[in-house]
Amino acid sequence: AICEHGCKYGECMGPNKCKCFPGFTGKTCNQDLNECGLKPRPCEHRCVNTHGSYKCYCLNGYMLMPDGTCASSRTCAMVNCQHGCEEVKGEVQCLCPSGGLQLGPNGRTCIDIDECSTGKAVCSYNRRCVNTFGSYYCKCQLGYELKYISGRYDCVDVNECVTNTHRCNLHAECLNTKGSFKCKCKQGYRGNGFDCA
């Protein structure tokens, strides 16, 4: 079985046929499946999609049960949690629907953790971290693009001279560099490559 474009989060089962791991979808299994949009809905109240999975949480006044259902709870209503609550060793605690959120100083509302600035994010050397509410993702550094090469996805240098995305002067040569480009005025012209006279 050969899958020309690979199977990012899955296995190659036949010629260009991928079988995706749970939580992923697409021809090459490179897209996260939004379980929250499935019918029947996986959560009773509210659902937050995560990378390769999802999390359920309840409305205020309800407690999240081990089976993912929401049970009405007077204690939860009294604590006044933003995203429902759970009981841990007989103590009621407010919940945050994702690991990328933390309880705020009031112990009831959830605030975002910026994984990119706290150093919690793990991105390979040629990728940059982009914070999102409740999570983060890794994007190719500027001047690089995601390509499928020899069996895996990698960030590859964009040749601005070939893609014509450079801003070199009409009388200048474009020279590709790693992650960028340089402009050099042609013979008989002087300038910085962007302006040649």
From TrEMBL:
Subcellular location as annotated: Secreted, Extracellular space, Extracellular matrix
SMART domains per UniProt: EGF (SM00181), EGF_CA (SM00179)
Cross-referenced PANTHER family: EPIDERMAL GROWTH FACTOR-LIKE PROTEIN 6 (PTHR24050:SF24), PA14 DOMAIN-CONTAINING PROTEIN (PTHR24050)
This protein's UniProt keywords: Calcium, Cell adhesion, Developmental protein, Differentiation, Disulfide bond, EGF-like domain, Extracellular matrix, Repeat, Secreted, Signal
Single GO term (MF): calcium ion binding
Name this protein carries in UniProt: EGFL6 protein
One GO biological process term: cell differentiation
Database matches in InterPro entries: EGF (IPR000742), EGF-like_Ca-bd_dom (IPR001881), EGF-type_Asp/Asn_hydroxyl_site (IPR000152), EGF_Ca-bd_CS (IPR018097), Growth_fac_rcpt_cys_sf (IPR009030), Nephronectin_domain (IPR052235), NOTCH1_EGF-like (IPR049883)
Family of the protein in this entry: Belongs to the nephronectin family.
Span of domain EGF-like: 32-71, 112-150, 157-195
